[in-house]
């Protein structure tokens, strides 16, 4: 089939999935229409506009129109809404609406409220007369010398300031939690990817945590959550589940969630999940990479990201086309052990940890110290009974302390 037709079909499928992500919403009809030249104030050319208008008027059961464009200028939106006598959404406003329905924590709700402010501001600017219709009465209010438009703009500024202040406090709390995590030295692995690619399901499969709620819809996860899991060496790590990315989404929206994505920058390892059963997997992957670049992550973190190809149970006989990518199915369990092994190697490398086997005298404080300061994998008692070979995962700093405290035992440490 013509690649353009195919691409249009995938875009329609994604647009329909976005609409259906809203509780109670369904798609009555879809249309593929060429859009006007970029930069044009209108979304369609004149002929297409008439054609679309006729088709919309012919559908009695529709209540809203979703135009799958990034963002419309407020006057354009207004013009279309007037012409069709229906509410009109673009990707930005539709996604905001989905976020509104899915945001659960206070932080996510406030991030959302902040993301909505530019929209409210542009509607005030584009429609200064609107307030009179809403019963604001006279042009000047109670001798304040401010017009309703100015008043509303000031209220928005105040609201924005308030939201930023509270979010900053929440951000401080998050920083504190992060410090605590570093103090306890739990390595952190962030799982990122296009929305609905299977991040939450994968973390659930890796940690066995049943409280996680994967769902077949875009933006099921709106809050960054942290989940503990064990690697094969018994090293405990924390997985960070993140909000999914989406193509053609204004950066302001991603920015609004940057505080929650801040955790990603502080992780030790990044896992980039791509749903290879999706026909548009390549575009989704490119979107995620460009969004990640926009988050200004440490280059080493970005370069060392582990590439996971998910949902391979839906693609029989799948093998990754590039070396280094891992084929995984969170549902059938394929590739999960390999993923854990690869994660372990990455985590050890990124955090300067090593697996060592040491000759340790039993009966002294050494073994107890190792249990406290490192992860003890195995204790193999030696025939003489007063010593053991102890295999540990240990940070360089802890190993240095161990050597200082117990100099006699140190020379017998061998890299694993
Ligand atoms: N067949 C199959 N389905 C999967 C697999 N992993 C996830 N899914 C399904 O894909 C859908 C989305 O999964 P989620 O884990 O919620 O995806 P997500 O990336 O967390 O999505 P958002 O949080 O919305 O960005 C769900 O219906 C899952 O059951 C897999 O390995 N195989
Ligand atoms: Mg999720």
TrEMBL record:
NCBIfam families: GTP_HflX. GO terms for cellular component: cytoplasm. Residues 187-351 form the Hflx-type G domain. Coiled coil: none annotated. Mg(2+) binds at residues 200, 221. Signal peptide: none annotated. Keywords: GTP-binding, Magnesium, Metal-binding, Nucleotide-binding. The keyword Transferase does not apply. It comes from Mus caroli. Its cofactor is Mg(2+). GO terms for molecular function: GTP binding; metal ion binding; ribosome binding. This is Putative GTP-binding protein 6. It comes from the Eukaryota. GTP binds at residues 193-200, 219-223, 241-244. InterPro entries: G_HFLX_dom, GTP-bd, GTP-bd_M, GTPase_HflX, GTPase_HflX_N, GTPase_HflX_N_sf, P-loop_NTPase.
